[in-house]
Amino acid sequence: MSLAGQPTPWDDRIIGFLGEIVSDTVVNVLLPEEIFEESPETLVYMAETLVQELPNLDVAALFPRIRQNAADEAVHRHSRFLTYLPTRFANLILDNKGYTPKQVWDILIQHFQAEGCMEAMNPLLNWLCITLHPTGQNDTGPPASHLTLTSPFIDQDLINHRNPFRQTVNIF
Questions:
Q1: DSSP code, position 120
Q2: Distance between CA 79 and CA 38 in Å, rounded?
Q3: Closest by CA position to 50, among listed 128, 123, 112, 145
């Protein structure tokens, strides 16, 4: 419902923001309902094999899809489509150009090892591992953790709702 009590196209939707709300370079996105569900089970490299193969992977590439007969180097995994990154690590991967999954892995793994928190970060590492492997025939599909975001037309109610957050942030 809008602030005036009228139904809006935003009702019963999960809405997120991409960009920087302070400088008003934010884009509204609709998140699909399945964002909190589990991703499909995916055959991925085991940790030891992943560490061996990662240096050979091009920065922007994904691993070739692993075949079912590679049981000695692969394992079935699933995760949530969306994962949580502790705020103490968020500044490591903030860049307006973005990062590839391999770059995120390389950055975060060093800090997890330095802090001795590898075991606690297993859910995130599992998600990243799934994100490094494509789906679909001929390795052409997106990772199993892939979600399609849409950016619908913004209405005045959403703009009005966002403004107090901008004013609060600008105080600091």
A1: T
A2: 5
A3: 128
Q: Is there a single domain that holds both residue 113 and residue 57?
A: yes
Distance CA 55, CA 45 (A): 14
Q: How far apart are the first and last CA of the chain?
A: 31
Report d(CA 21, CA 19) in Å as an integer: 6
Euclidean distance between CA atoms 43 and 49, whole angstroms: 13
Along the 172 residues of the chain, how does pLDDT read in single tens digits? 555 677 776 777 777 777 665 566 677 788 888 888 898 888 888 888 888 888 988 888 888 877 766 767 888 888 988 888 898 998 898 877 788 888 999 999 999 999 999 999 999 999 998 888 888 766 667 888 887 777 766 667 667 766 666 555 444 4
In terms of residue numbers, what domain contains 76? Answer: 37-146
Residue 172 and residue 123 share a domain:
no
pTM of the model: 0.72
